[in-house]
Specification:
Elements: H1 21-25, H2 36-56, E1 60-64, H3 74-90, E2 97-100, H4 115-123, E3 127-131, H5 132-137, E4 148-150, H6 152-160, E5 164-167
Parallel strand pairs: 1-2, 1-5, 2-3, 3-4
Helix pairs in contact: 3-4
Length: 168
């Protein structure tokens, strides 16, 4: 029966950066059996994940399908929607596009409580798009105060081109 040597270095993992013996000999401190290369790999992976998460915002689309969030009391639902847009303006992560369909188009028309929030988001580069079909259905084409209009084909393209869709 052979005796295990606990001081041996772990086997290399394919595709992972390994710290060389030269790096250790030139002043790198060994952390247990793993070595400093292990920690630099973790730092690189964390930085990459942070970069991916941050850039994902640029591929995030919010689909608004009504004037409120959730079922139940309409006043509460409207308040939640207003709070959502207020919070969205405070976030560092950018949303690429907000799409309004069905009764959600009421939020981009005169008298809407969320217009100031939408204005801030649009100034920061978020595209605001409302369904022309829905605006026509509710007879609101002359009351739109924010963003642009598009047909459902364009709205479908925006949804399909995104990495993440948040539907409210």
């Amino acid at each position: 029966m052979s005796k295990s040597n606990y001081n041996e270095r772990p086997m290399p993992v394919p595709g992972q950066h390994q710290t060389s013996a030269v790096q250790h000999a030139s002043g790198g401190q060994e952390a247990g059996a793993l070595g400093t290369g292990y920690f630099s790999i973790l730092e690189e992976q964390a930085a990459h994940q942070l970069e991916m998460t941050h850039s994902m915002g640029l591929k995030t689309v919010v689909l608004i399908t009504s004037t409120g969030i959730g079922q139940g009391d309409q006043q509460l639902a409207s308040s939640l929607m207003s709070q959502f847009f207020s919070n969205l303006t405070r976030m560092e992560e950018m949303v690429r596009c907000i799409l309004f369909v069905n009764s959600g188009v009421l939020l981009v028309t005169e008298g809407s409580d969320v217009l100031p929030h939408l204005h801030v988001l649009q100034e920061r580069g978020t595209e605001i798009i409302s369904s022309i079909t829905c605006l026509e259905h509710y007879r609101l084409t002359d009351k739109i105060r924010m963003g642009s209009t598009a047909n459902l084909f364009t709205i479908t393209e925006k949804l399909m081109d995104s990495l993440r869709v948040i539907t409210l």
